[in-house]
Here is the input.
Amino acid sequence: MHPLIEHDGIILGIFFITLAGIFYTRQLENAYWKKFYTWVPSLLLCYIIPGTLNSLGIIAGEESKLYAIASQYLLPAALIWLTSNADLPSILRLGNIVLFVFLAGTIGVIIGGPLAFYIVTSLSADLHHTAVQQEWCKGLFTITGSWIGGSSSQIALKEVYG
Here is the structure.
């Protein structure tokens, strides 16, 4: 079944209009929108609306070339913009305990994922071969990226490690 809209430029326009509408209504002082966004996070809508358009056959994510463009051009630019706007003095003012807990959690994820994989797969050689053959262990990279830097880092590591 062909999607209703196949042209990537139109799909990108729909995405931009959707995001603009979400962020515009999010900042309105209207009582309805204030109550709506109290219960429905705007970020959730940014995922749900395009996903719904895809599920309904209006657009087709698998056939579109937008993902390749976004991951090669928009994602690196977004990562640079995100890190360049980080307020390091404010982060450092959070205190040593907060920074220690964050670093301990980060190290735990980096070491814990491969360690858990090693422990589970060492129980059976067949299990180790199956896990490596199916490459599900590469998911550890994306989970680590998600913990360390959020969705953008998760996507970046997914692109790097496949």
Notes: Residues 15 and 50 are 7 Å apart (CA to CA).
